[in-house]
Amino acid sequence: MTQDDKKRDVQEQQTEADDTGYQQKHRPSREFGSRADYLHNELSIMSPKRWALNLPFKDYRIEPEDMIPALAATIGKIVMVAAVVGAFAGPLNLSDAFVVENTRFEMLIAVLFVIGFSGMFNPTANLAGTHGPMIPLIPLIVTAGGHPLSLGLLVGLFGLILGISRGGSKLMALTSDGVRGGLLIYLGAIGLLSQIGSLTDWANASGMGYVAFVVILVTIVMYALLARLEMRWLSIPLGSGIAFLIAFALGAPFEFVTEPGFPTLSPAYWWGADTGWKIGLPGFSEFLSTAPFAILAVAMWSPDVMGQRVFQEINYPRKADKVLMRVDDTMGVAAVRQAVGSALGGGNLSSSWGTYIIPAAIAKRPIPGGAILTGIMCVIAALWGYPMDLAVWPPVLNVALMVGVFMPLLEAGMQMTRDIRSSQSAGIVVFGSAFVNPVFGWSVAMLLDNLGLIGDKERGRRLHYMDRWVLPGITFVILLVIMAAVGMLPGIPAFIPH
């Protein structure tokens, strides 16, 4: 356990002894000079209880600003879950109707964990979202003999072990600001370019290339104005709405096709031999071939969660340490959500919910209030059906991810790499990530940085030998072997059976 975690545990014990602390310290917004001052005060006075009941208006408030991350999270959830289920459905020859049905089912499963865990019982655990970086690997997993259920159960098991052992927070403590900043810069830049390319390709395929140009140009101007006015927390709903209106006005094709309905809830249906996934239950060979991918998925959690927490640290006031998300609790909740969701029949791969926590940090809001609203919106979207069509329409989807996730990540990374030493470490992260992937870039840069070969050399000398080279070295070697096993290292063929 780190010193910061010990201090926070003491603070939580004091808070639990005085449940009325937040109510006594709360002051109405009219008593503050600005809305920003009120929101900063709310973050500073909150003392959420860990693994105990936290209630709205007793332990925290639900404010209008909570609508922004909730809306962004709902849009992101529909898109990402549909992408994961669709990636499985392609190699398994399943229909688009199956993808929509399973996505709706996953939206309802998410509600239980969003409201129950992040909204009430552990408001310092971020919402359990979707593991986007694993999407390109899913066809390889299926080809290697993997199974959605075996993958989900193993991810849940390995993630729970990492969360209980506090391995996530330890890895975070070993990662310097330069390495974190480089990771954010890479993820932000690559994601931004990917979304621009995706929107352009869609517009060109429709014979309307000018639609993408106009939408992106207006988005740039809008984002600049919101940054100037310090209102970037409006970027996702405002950007998505403007993108929809412009694209539709310019003649881009759009129609609602998903009708209201209720998904099948029976696990027996989803894991039947002739129903649902139509592949039955996995055997030992499916678990064996899936294990390397499950380990890799959990290994990717640390840099992902790390970057999201850093984003909170940058946007929250200094006294708001009690509401910063706990890395290990977030991983634990994601692991449990993964295991339960997979057992019930869902195809989602869990991770920390980036399209929620990043807009929430920009809006200066803690986790629980928006979590309640996110759960409500997910239920509405799943049962109503029509919002799912709107959320996955390329102009809405791509713009939401550009301004709500990737641009903020890029900006946060640049803020963390302002001096020469941190920029050296950041450069190695970007280099390694471009060479292999972000997991490789992060792990190799963390090892070199802690050894003092790059970045702040004095920091390396101050570290204990376990933190300086043993743990970073073990982490790098384990990840290197896993990536080599599944064929992710350039020029090295995979050595697990496909």
TrEMBL record:
Transmembrane regions listed in the UniProt entry: 67-93, 105-125, 137-162, 208-226, 233-254, 279-301, 367-386, 392-414, 426-448, 468-496
Disordered: region residues: 1-33
Keywords: Membrane, Transmembrane, Transmembrane helix
Official protein name in the record: DUF3360 family protein
Transmembrane helix as UniProt keyword: yes
Compositional bias segments (type: Basic and acidic residues): 1-11
